[in-house]
Design goal:
Strand content: under 5%
Number of helices: 2
Distance between the termini: 13 Å
Order of helices and strands: HH
Helix content: over 70%
Number of strands: 0
Length: 55
């Protein structure tokens, strides 16, 4: 379960870095939304992993 958490954290961090790059590039709003949704899915994944580890 630990390696799964690391993978989700890595992916969420990658989306955060992509968001910063897109903001610096003044990218279209669709690219920014894609990054935000990727980060949101990562957060949901972390919450799900936390919930499953309690059971």
């Amino acid at each position: 379960m630990k390696r799964t958490r690391e993978a989700v954290l890595f992916g969420t961090g990658a989306w955060a870095i992509a968001l910063v790059i897109e903001l610096v590039r003044k990218a279209p709003s669709s690219s920014i939304w894609i990054c935000l949704v990727g980060m949101a899915f990562g957060a949901i994944g972390l919450l799900d992993l936390k919930r499953r580890s309690k059971n």
